[in-house]
C-alpha cells in the first residue's frame, strides 16, 4: 500500500476549505438550486434544524441531524411531476424535505487526525462527504507517522483492529483542548480526495499507469435506458452511485450504443424548469440529443424562468423573470446533429457523454473527471467508441488506488505514454 495513505491525515486536505454552512430541509427548492450551483459533486448535504440553538452540539447529535444529499437530478425529477408542472411557482417554493432522499449514511464526522487510508475505506463503503472539525492551530503539515496524533495513539491502532474505520471520530471536548473551534466544520467530498491523489501520482506508482481494466475499476452494473423510451423513465431507474443513467440504442447484436446520459452532472447548472418539462414530455433520445428539429415550435412551451435560478444573478435577493422559449440548449445541451436518428456519428454537442476506453490509464480517467467536474466517466470498447462497456465513478477509483500490487495485472506503459493520453 502506498505510504501516502498512511503518512497523511484528513486534516491535510482541509487547509483552505471554507466553513460549512448548513442547508436546512425547510429551505425551498429555489434556494436549493442556487446552492447546488456552487457545490461539488452536483449535490448538497441537507440538515434538520438544531433543536437548541446556542448550545454546544455533540458529534452524535449532529450526525443524527443529517438527512441526506440533494442532487440536481432529484430536483429535476421532482419538478417533472404532473402537479409541479401545473403549478411551477408552488413547486419552486416547496420545502427541500419533500424532495431529498433520506440517507444518513452518506456523511460521517471524522477527526482531523484520521488517517487518509481510513477515510478512503469509509468512502469505498458508500460515504460521500466527510465532516471535519476546523482547527485553530492546524498547520496543514503531513503527520509523518499519522498513527500518532496530539501525542495519543489513534483508536484503531490502540485496539489492535485495522477495521475500525471511524478513527478517533469524535474530537476532544472543548474542556480538554482548545484546538477546535466550537461548531465550526468543513466538508470534504470525494472530488477533494481525487484532487489530492492526482497530485501524488508518483507515490502511487505503478497504479496510475495501469489501465482501468487491469485494475478492475470498470463497474459493469450501470443504469441505462433505451433512447426510444420516455425520458421520465430514467428517474424510475433510481441510479445510486454515480447518479447517472446512460441513454443507449440497442444494436442488432445486443450491445449498447451510448448516445448520452441523464445525470446529476449534466443537470448541475441547467435551466431546471425547462429540463423538467423536457424530462416529462420527451423521449430519452430527444432529451439528450436536442429537439429543435424534431418538435414543432408551436409544441414548445413558453417559460417564465426565474433568472436567479437560471443565471445565479440576484438583485436585492429577488430574481427577475423573463419569458423564454423552451430549447434543449436552455437545459444545457448544444446539439449539432440535424435530427434525432440522423447523423449521430457527427454529434459532438455539450451533451455528449464523457467517455474513455478500457485501456485508458487510471490517471487519465482521474484527470478527465476533475477537468470536467464530473462524477463518472463512461467506458467504451477499444475498437468502437460508441459501444458501452461500463462506468467508472469515484468509488471505483478509490477501490483501485488502494489495491495491493499483487492484485493488479502488470503494465509496461511509460510516463510519456501517460502524458500523451492525459493531454488528448
How would you describe the overall organization of this protein?
Helix content is about 25%, strand content about 20%. By secondary structure, it is of the alpha/beta class. It has a domain at about 5-150 and about 185-190: Roll (CBS-domain). The chain has a three-stranded mixed beta sheet with strand order 1-2-3. α4 packs across α11 (about 270-280) and α15 (about 360-370) runs parallel beside α17. The longest helix is centred in the C-terminal third of the chain and has 11 residues, at about 360-370. The protein is flat and about 60 Å long. Residues about 140-180, about 290-300, about 305-325, about 335-350 and about 405-415 have low confidence and may be disordered.
Radius of gyration: 23 Å
For this structure, what is the CATH homologous superfamily of the domain at 3-148 and 183-190?
A: CBS-domain
**Overall helicity:** 25-40%
What's the CATH topology name of the domain at 3-148 and 183-190? Answer: CBS-domain
Shape: flat
Q: How many strand elements?
A: 16
Largest sheet descriptor: 3 strands, mixed
Structural class determined from secondary elements: alpha/beta
Amino acid at each position: 500500500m502506498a505510504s501516502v495513505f498512511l503518512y497523511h491525515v484528513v486534516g491535510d486536505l482541509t487547509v483552505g476549505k471554507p466553513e460549512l454552512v448548513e442547508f436546512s430541509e425547510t429551505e425551498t427548492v429555489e434556494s436549493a438550486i442556487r446552492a447546488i450551483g456552487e457545490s461539488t459533486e452536483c449535490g448538497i448535504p441537507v440538515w434538520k434544524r438544531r433543536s437548541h440553538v446556542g448550545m454546544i452540539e455533540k458529534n452524535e447529535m449532529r450526525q443524527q441531524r443529517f438527512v441526506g444529499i440533494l442532487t440536481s437530478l432529484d430536483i429535476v425529477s421532482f419538478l417533472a411531476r404532473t402537479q409541479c408542472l401545473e403549478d411551477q411557482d408552488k413547486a419552486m417554493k416547496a420545502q427541500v424535505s419533500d424532495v431529498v432522499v433520506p440517507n444518513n449514511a452518506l456523511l460521517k464526522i471524522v477527526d482531523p487526525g484520521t488517517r487518509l487510508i481510513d477515510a478512503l475505506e469509509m468512502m469505498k463503503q458508500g460515504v460521500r462527504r466527510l465532516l471535519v472539525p476546523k482547527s485553530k492551530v492546524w498547520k496543514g503539515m503531513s503527520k509523518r507517522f499519522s498513527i500518532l496524533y496530539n501525542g495519543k495513539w489513534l483508536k484503531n491502532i490502540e485496539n489492535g483492529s485495522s477495521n475500525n474505520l471511524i478513527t478517533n471520530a469524535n474530537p476532544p471536548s472543548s474542556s480538554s483542548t482548545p484546538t477546535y473551534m466550537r461548531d465550526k466544520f468543513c466538508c470534504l467530498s470525494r472530488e477533494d480526495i481525487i484532487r489530492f491523489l492526482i497530485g501524488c501520482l508518483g507515490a502511487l506508482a505503478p497504479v496510475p499507469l495501469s489501465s482501468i481494466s487491469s485494475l478492475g475499476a470498470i463497474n459493469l452494473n450501470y443504469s441505462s435506458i433505451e433512447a426510444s423510451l420516455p425520458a421520465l423513465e430514467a428517474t424510475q431507474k433510481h441510479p445510486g452511485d454515480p447518479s447517472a443513467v446512460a441513454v443507449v440504442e440497442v444494436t442488432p447484436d445486443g450491445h449498447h450504443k451510448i448516445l448520452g446520459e441523464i445525470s446529476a452532472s449534466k443537470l448541475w447548472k441547467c435551466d431546471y424548469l425547462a429540463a423538467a418539462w423536457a424530462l416529462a414530455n420527451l423521449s430519452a433520445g430527444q432529451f439528450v440529443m436536442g429537439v429543435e428539429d424534431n418538435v414543432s415550435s408551436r409544441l414548445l412551451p413558453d417559460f417564465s424562468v426565474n433568472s436567479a435560478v437560471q443565471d445565479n444573478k440576484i438583485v436585492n435577493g429577488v430574481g427577475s423573470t423573463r419569458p423564454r422559449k423552451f430549447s434543449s440548449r436552455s437545459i444545457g445541451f448544444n446539439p449539432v446533429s440535424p435530427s434525432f436518428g440522423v447523423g449521430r456519428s457527427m454529434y459532438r454537442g455539450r451533451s455528449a457523454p464523457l467517455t474513455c476506453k478500457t485501456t485508458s490509464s487510471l490517471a487519465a480517467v482521474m484527470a478527465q473527471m476533475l477537468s470536467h467536474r464530473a462524477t463518472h466517466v463512461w467506458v467504451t470498447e477499444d475498437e468502437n467508441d460508441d459501444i458501452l462497456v461500463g462506468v467508472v465513478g469515484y468509488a471505483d477509483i478509490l477501490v483501485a488506488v488502494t489495491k495491493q500490487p499483487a492484485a493488479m495485472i502488470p503494465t509496461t506503459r511509460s510516463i510519456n505514454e501517460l502524458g500523451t493520453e492525459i493531454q488528448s
